Amino acid sequence: MAQASGLDPLVDGEDERPKWDNKLQYLLSCIGFAVGLGNIWRFPYLCQTYGGGAFLIPYLIALVFEGIPLFYIELAIGQRLRKGSIGVWTSISPYLGGVGLGCFSVSFIVCLYYNTVLVWVLWFLLNSFQDPLPWSTCPLNLNRTGFVQECQGSGTVSYFWYRQTLNITADISNSGTIQWQLFLCLVACWTVVYLCVIRGIESTGKVIYFTALFPYLVLTIFLIRGLTLPGATEGLTYLFTPKMQILQNPRVWLDAATQIFFSLSLAFGGHIAFASYNPPRNNCEKDAVTIALVNSMTSLYASITIFSIMGFKATNDYGRCLDRNILSLINEFDFPEQSIPRDEYPTVLMHLNATQPERVARLPLKTCHLDDFLDKSASGPGLAFIVFTEAVLHMPGAPAWSVLFFGMLFTLGLSSMFGNMEGVITPLLDMGVLPRGIPKEAMTGLVCLVCFLSAMCFTLQSGSYWLEIFDNFAASLNLIIFAFLEVVGVIYVYGMKRFCDDIEWMIGRRPALYWRVIWRVVSPMLLFSILLSYVILLAQQPPSYEAWNPQYEQFPSREEKLYPGWVQVICVLLSFLPSLWVPGVALVQLLSQYRQRWKDTQLERSPKPEGRC
Amino acid sequence: MEWIDGTSLNAENAFKVRLSIRTALGDKAYVWDTNEEYLFRAMVAFSMRKVPSREATEISHVLLCNVTQRVSFWFVVTDPSRNHTLPAVEVQSAIRMNRNRINNAFFLNDRTLEFLRIPSTLAPPMDPSVPIWIIVFGVIFCIVIVATALLVLSGIRHRRRNNKGLPGLDDAEDKCENTITVENGIPCDPLDTKGGHINDGFLTEDERLTPL
């Protein structure tokens, strides 16, 4: 049995550890950490891609058998051991200390690139305070006879995003220069984060009331607005019509499991840190179930809002597609203005095709199907910065909606950043990295400064390509490994009996058989199969990316390019370097144990001095 | 191509014009009749007269043709002898110079009054000297910096006050008087730490031994 050193007995007494002002702060902090940008731009996309309402089935199954049990373990162990992730794992077993270090490193890496997304959101937010919005028109070319060529090819919103915001290069190896407008926003973002985490949970606890609740307010406003827009019902029916046959695709189940996993922000160490500030006798079982359910409900709520607005956008685009075709016909055949209503367009086109096919053939007519526009789904930054910004352009009072939307994204991301930062700061504070004389404000300032300097690479012109790499490779595989080790570590190394005893002390009753079975059997198996499938998928994934190249023949489609060799090496390193902490620390511990034992045997063998009192 | 007075002229120097009156004006749209055509010819002649070598252009030199219901037509400008058409380049530059006047005469704009093959000089976008986002950024950033400075200063002051007073006793006093233990959302109100301080130095012998 591993040495369980450093485990304090369970007492009701007070200690010096900071604590939450009230239960609501703690709940809001965990909810804010769990509910993030992924709830807005990943879940609706998955819902749409994987058969609408049918996706909810694997999602709920994953929630019940994987999400909530893992979350419960994290909260319980954090509340019991009252330390951050590094402290918790070193307490459970010195050989497992690497898990804590790994979680800490992943939290640090995620802090870097997650805040960069907030930088982009802040940039859009700042630019929303003007009418007309800057992404509604193209800039003029040099002799003012038309618009810039690149903008005409790609569309105003894509141009604003790729050229005026990112100023993106055509290749990842071409780093370009630091974009000063993004650099300024980076300074501002990290200052805001520092302002909020300056005293740990004492300061974030005050801000969280706003940052956790404001997104719900905005989502509700958007929902009401979205449902009253024309075309909302088409979007919603398209989204929620279940296509059951898609459940036969194993990819659906994998994506549901990974979505629940990342959505709850498991294995980052942030929830452990939050729970460690709880009073010892807090009902963590109720908390776990509540927070997980709130997170999933938020995802659903957000997808209703998003899809009513996407339905509006699709209907709008469909209408404009028809109008463009109608205008072409009218101009070519000199019909009176507005003489072809949208419904009569097919009949008129058929008639013209029969009578004068050559003239019709010369026209640039596009086929317009509403389903094609509804199908144009997007996830991730593409949804927020391109698709949604374009939808907002057509809503009356666009700047106000834009400010609300990007304000919501900013507060959503900020509350998730608090969790990430706590996953970094709490272990550092617990380990006592800096001497006691140095105040907490200096420590958090130092962490923010280091993160800010490291994140400067994302403000380069190739920054968004690098962010995609970090997003795809740095977090996913490592977190699944850590989660698997978490379950195995707590249930088998710490001991199921001891864990259940602790829970009984904390909440007043032992965990039901349901939990015990799931922890012992179902969750480890599920996590292991997810890990395997993920590794297989990652290996099969071609190491390519989509570059924005104005010189590409099929511009505005993005050009698929392979990662150069050195970038591929970095991808591989990112994928498993944080996990190497686990065997690394175990090895170091083993070696030091051997050395200790060897020293002890040496002491025994050496002659004892006489007269030792 | 038939022209109004039967003269067949060089179609290279002719320009097609397209008006979208109903799109621009909706209910207030006027009907395109010969009077409007007269006004158009007058505006084109006016534009040509502004060209240094063409001050003698008259309305009768501007010829319209093929007026459709769309409303679209072709026009061409002839020289005083009525035998040649003025070169396209001259007409182009003349129209471009006076595009705004022509648009306003018909209550239209560059999009609704189209001269095909004559690109319009687009109005420069409203470009304030300081971009708006920098102003908003400046305001927000100043607020954040001030708030951060205040927090840091208050932390320093709090710590200095703590260090100046007696360490230990002050903290205990502060803890007993200011903090209310909260567990599971229910504030605990331990009566024995309010109003009196138990001095452990005076623990009697009886209390240290277990009672019989």
From TrEMBL, chain A:
Q: Which SUPFAM superfamilies match?
A: SNF-like
What are the entry keywords?
Glycoprotein, Membrane, Metal-binding, Sodium, Symport, Transmembrane, Transmembrane helix, Transport
Q: How does it sit in the bilayer?
A: Multi-pass membrane protein
Where, in this chain's numbering, is Na(+) bound?
A: 32, 34-35, 39, 263, 295, 412, 416
Q: Which GO terms describe its cellular component?
A: brush border membrane
Record-annotated membrane-spanning stretches? 26-44, 56-77, 98-126, 178-197, 209-232, 252-277, 289-310, 400-421, 442-461, 473-496, 517-539, 566-591
Does the record bear Glycoprotein in its keywords? yes
> Which GO annotations describe the biological process of this protein?
renal amino acid absorption
What InterPro entries is this protein classified in? B0AT3_SLC6sbd, Na/ntran_symport, Neutral_aa_SLC6, SNS_sf
Compartments (UniProt record): Membrane
Note the Pfam families from the entry: SNF (PF00209)
One MF annotation (Gene Ontology) recorded for this entry: metal ion binding
Checking PROSITE patterns in the record gives: NA_NEUROTRAN_SYMP_1, NA_NEUROTRAN_SYMP_2, NA_NEUROTRAN_SYMP_3
What family classification does the UniProt entry report for this protein? Belongs to the sodium:neurotransmitter symporter (SNF) (TC 2.A.22) family.
Q: What is this protein called?
A: Transporter
| Gene source species | Nannospalax galili (Northern Israeli blind subterranean mole rat)
- The UniProt gene name for this protein comes to Slc6a18
